[in-house]
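Progress note, project year one: complex with NAP.
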Amino acid sequence: MKKKLTGKTALVTGSSRGVGRLVAIALADLGCSTIFCHGRSEASCRETARQIESRGAKAVILPAELSDPAQVESLADRVLAAGGVDILYNNAAVMHPWRDSPEELSFEDWAWSFQVNVFALVMLTVRLLAPMKLKKWGRIINLTSGIDKTPQLAAYGASKWAVDKWTDDLAAALAGSGVIVSRLDPGWLKTDLGGPNADHEPEAVLPGALVPCLLPDDAPGGSFFRAQELRNFSLD
Ligand SMILES: NC(=O)c1ccc[n+]([C@@H]2O[C@H](COP(=O)([O-])OP(=O)(O)OC[C@H]3O[C@@H](n4cnc5c(N)ncnc54)[C@H](OP(=O)(O)O)[C@@H]3O)[C@@H](O)[C@H]2O)c1
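Model obtained:
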């Protein structure tokens, strides 16, 4: 793998496991110098950090519960105090339990889904934009989903729809700034969130998940990438 991101810094939310861990380690392989690992606890991030450091990059663990706005602010404060990041990989998300009908979704299902998957993502992004704009370079990747016509997971699905809408609006605001925001559907993967019946092993998210980090400076914002359509993308 060529070191196409030499010297860049990145925050990967939800990098204690699943897609986030794979992306964080792959960013180290691509030459990122510092990667901020995030999960809800320091212990959960240690293995990701170990694998990043074994590749010669620096790993900084920043725990935060994203349903708590104060912890989202604190996460942003800690990243900004370290100089901000070039790449913000908004990967962390929750999925409420399967409900047999839309009427069975609780207020908590809706609130939790939007708090973690939308509000935390938006607040973190707006806090971390300033240094990217100053440098006139940044890549923001928002994890979305191909979930469709699944009323049993309606609050999760709607939260991803909101992420899509936010990505569109943010892309318009960032046009010409050097900061490119994209969204990525990883495909249905056998992670803790995707479950054991998913179509693909977690590793199938690579290399596609890296494509929006590697966009040329004249690429349009708001693009929708599907990792499973990018399985043959060459990183060389
Ligand atoms: N897997 C799929 O099939 C699939 C399909 C479409 C889209 N996606 C999207 O892909 C992304 C990654 O999913 P995944 O399958 O890798 O999920 P995962 O294996 O369940 O990992 C979720 C990550 O998010 C963190 N997280 C969960 N709840 C959190 C909270 N309340 N506060 C802070 N961090 C929290 C977890 O940290 P802890 O270790 O602390 O819990 C973990 O690092 C998500 O945005 C998901 O919606 C996944």
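The domain at 9-230 is CATH 3.40.50.720 (Rossmann fold).
The chain is about 35% helix and 15% strand.
No further modelling is planned for this target in the current period.
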